[in-house]
Amino acid sequence: MLPQRMKKAITDNPKKLANLIDLVNLPSTLRDFVGQSQISRLGCFMHVWSYIKTNNLQDTNNKNVVNCDKKLKGILLGKPQVELAELPALIKLHFPKEPK
Hints:
mainly alpha
């Protein structure tokens, strides 16, 4: 189910997969949005994506752009519009970095 490019990245560096699926305690803004106190980064992204699809927040003219409503702006740095390509990076900001 994963794209070939992502499969290769994960097999080359298994720690990347662990970073995507490890459960993490969420900050309050994200906790309110997701409705859970712990979730993986991948699970959070999937939750945000399903919220976007359920509420028809994709721009009708350009499907690569998401028009943020008030709830989504709260977790995406208050931006009124976000491109799909920058969505994972904006979600990643809410997850604490692991010490090396």
